[in-house]
Amino acid sequence: MLKLSSCALGVALSFALMPAVYAKGEPATLPRSVTAGPCIEGICEYRLPNGLRVLLFPDASKPTVTVNLVYGVGSMQENYGETGMAHLLEHLLFKGTQKHPDIPGEMQKRGVNKNATTSLDRTNYFASFPANDDTLDWLLAMEADRMLNSRVAKADLDSEMTVVRNEMEAGDNSPAGVLMKRMRSVAYDWHNYANLPIGARSDVENVPIGNLQAFYRTWYQPDNALLIVAGRIDADTTLSRIAAHFGPLKKPARTLPAFHTAEPTQDGEREVTVRRSGDLSLVAATYHVPALAQADSAALAVLGNVLGHTPSGRLHKALVETKLAAGTGAGSMSMRDPGLFNVIAVLPREGDAARAEAELLRQAEAIVARPVTADEVDAAKQRIGNDQENLFNNVNAVAMALSEYQAAGDWRLLFVQRDAIAKVTAADVNRVAAAYLKPSNRTLGRFVPTDAPDRAEIPAAPAIASVVDGYTGRAAVEAGEAFEATPQNIAARTQTFTLGDGLKVSLLPRRTRGQTVTVNAHFEFGSEQAISGRDTAAQWVGSMLLRGAAGQSYEQLVARFDALKTEASIGGSLQGAQIRLSGKRETLAEALALAAQVLRQPDFPQAQFEQLRLQAITGIEAQRKEPGMLASMAMAMATYFDPWPAGHPLHADSLDESLAKLNALKLGDLRAWHRDFYGTANGRISVVGDFDPEAVKAQLQALFAGWKSPAPYAPIATRYQPRAAHRESFSTPDKPNAVLLARQNLSLNVTDADAPALSIAVDILGGDPLKSRLADRIRQREGLSYGVSAGLRADDSRSGRDDNGSLTVQAIAAPENMGKVEHALREELARLVAGGVTEQELRDAVAARMVQREQSRASDGAVAGLLQELLDYDRSMAFVIERDSAYRSLTVDRVNAAIRTHLKPESLSVFVAGDFK
Questions:
Q1: 193, 376, 178: which is closest to 284 by C-alpha?
Q2: What is the DSSP string of 266-308?
Q3: How far apart are alpha carbons 270 and 268 in whole angstroms?
């Protein structure tokens, strides 16, 4: 599946060591009655007698396992009056079975990262965890059990219905989400793709439990499921376990319902206008296009990239660079049945909507007048190919992506589509643009009768077998070594040294799948006195670095990193500059050199500066009536939690202050900041992955060690500030989802003796959105909120004791329920302080924390971040080992003493915002 290309404003478009190991690609030894299916590039299919299909993708290069169970049911299969049923059922399947009464609790105890999603054509339940035979066996047994034996009880429906409704309300806060939902409902006359999985509010609120139970019995059966297991597994053992747990499930006697509704050809332009509270203007158009299996879908995918890419796409150039729009996007949503192709533009608050709409439609519908070129198609295919290559380097990500292609008809379509995109030509792209992006096939905002309708005939999808049968795929991606990322192994493998006077470096070379490598670099400069009054320029220099450097434009720099198969992030902050690269061994040297050039020789082009300023201003204006922004701004302001005076670099600005600073900012301010502060001789660099350490060391010395900042670095000390309790409420009309933020300041540093105990205590209070004290009560029992959580911030410093710590709680709910949420939150915090935690809670929380810490080290990016953090604070892996030991040795008395010392319910400040009547 191809996503809508990202827009410049995301807020608007939200919707150990061993020999090298290779993915085998040969079928596993078959248990009795299990049959083998096709094997594609290391992924092999099997089928049980009851109809269950199984995909195994063994790969030992990362110590994780992903289990993804995909059911062939989504909102497409819902009947009239039952919209939202598939999604509601997804929630209820976490309520347990007779054998597994507390599924979230059992998963949390085992450190399983879990979730589930419902789409138009499928529902999937997925879990990822450090490779562990017992956890895998338990998870397979649990999934087999809840496939047929979930409670799906009236009491659970009554509480979960309001949780789902709150999720719906949260989605309705998004202007782009609401607009695209309305456009979909207008674009389709009869097909169920008109309805998103969240459903209609009235259906969700009133669905009879009997209907839901019947829906469950029909669709949750082995012959309607695909079980995917990927990662560090033994294929023979895993297949035997699957057969043992799922084999006893009987194949149902019923025949799955068939659907025969086909959307008729659209016969004219359509229009929808959404009028809701907010400050963000959007214009969008959507067009009917063929199903994923149909041959044109590959060319449409390339067309979406040609139009929607930032900064090279046609929409960006025509609307953003001309200031008609602050951001744009485009993309094809291809599925099992004919789907939609979308184009969208985010407009400045005072923008010319008519001109923007006209230009958006001209770019989409007049390609015949300015055909897409071969160079544009090649660049788009390069970008898409890079994304696909990155996907295939991550076995667990492939396991998740297969859900979407299975939903579109067959998992092998992932490979078929990849190969088809590689063959797309400019002629293909121009042909599909002319065939489908035409006014009579558009839903925008108007309907105009015409004497000579020009209609787009959508070809039928071929039989899936004709597309995928006999397909063999490409050679499997070479896997890396099986490195166990324990603190001891990381310490033993890592080379740490200093270049020049102050550039500290940690190198961890290892063979990785696809020869990937990650670079994290952070350079420090400036003092509190030096940067005061210049904080806006500091932030904006970082944003402008990639917008043009060393005579290369933004587009050229992005294209060069694409050609180097490197994801690059280069930026700056108040007292530093950062480089983050995720790339390949073969191109690492070129990518590093290019990144250093960007950091050292920015051009600061005026046009890009104005683009960014327009985007920033539009983004700020769009937040003025958002509940989350109002609550967070109130909490951040000086009266409550901001101890810094106006003009101090850490002062929290209001929206108006931020806008004033943006409008006053000059390009010369940025050039002066870069001249006065930037340098790379003082900093921290970590490199993890497949690289030559000697070559990298020499290159880092040459690129970074000699460039000294004119402004020596001195950290700004941060101190605990006591604050009395405060409560404030804000009215946000026409926003159906309310937000609560709460905070208590704490005197806490990471190295304090109480830090581990207090961290575990806050996890017990609200660390897991499905299993914690707050979640158990506010979400699970009372059904008041889709999301409630608590977090702890402990300060840190290289020297001295910075102690600006805090406890924070956040929740969303319907405005009429927010009072109950606040009451429950205060009661649970008071109960934690008065009664403390139990032995079982402590054991479960510590076990989950240890698994989380182990799991985080499975990612090279996370390890690179950890190594850089250790360099930042002059620590070694011994600190990590000691912290692990501190967690394991915690006692109930120690945790409860820390709670009583630090947590003060009477000092909790609360800020709420919503449409309170």
A1: 178
A2: P-S-EE-----S-S-EEEEEEEEE--TTSTHHHHHHHHHHHHH
A3: 6
**3-state secondary structure labels for all residues of 198-213:** CCCHHHHHHCCHHHHH
3-state secondary structure 19-76: CECCCCCCCCCCCCCCEEEEEECCEEEEECCCCCEEEEEECCCCCEEEEEEEECCCHH
The secondary structure of 893-914 as a DSSP string is: HHHHHHHHHH--GGG-EEEEEE
CA 36 to mean position of chain CA atoms: 35
Rounded CA gap, 107 and 771, in Å?
Answer: 9
Residues paired with residue 685 on neighbouring β-strands, in sequence order? 505, 521
Q: What is the mean pLDDT of each run of 10 residues along the chain (917 residues)?
A: 35 31 57 94 96 96 94 95 94 96 95 95 96 96 97 93 90 84 94 93 92 96 97 96 97 91 92 82 94 97 97 97 95 94 89 92 96 97 95 92 96 97 98 97 59 69 89 86 94 96 97 96 96 93 96 97 97 96 97 98 97 93 90 78 87 91 95 97 97 98 97 94 93 93 96 97 96 96 96 92 95 96 98 98 97 93 96 96 97 98 97 94
Indicate the DSSP class of residue 418: H
In Å, how far are 56, 292, 765, 837, 897 from 831, measured between CA atoms?
46, 54, 10, 9, 14
Return the structure tokens found at 712: 């020596």
Q: Report yes or no: 331 and 13 within 8 Å, Cβ to Cβ.
A: no
Cα gap 83→88, rounded to integer Å: 9
Entry pTM = 0.87
Residue 867 CB partners (closer than 8 Å, separation 6+)? 490, 494, 506, 508, 520, 686, 688
User: Contact at 8 Å (CB) between 804 and 642?
Assistant: no
Q: Locate tokens 């979406």: which residue?
A: 304
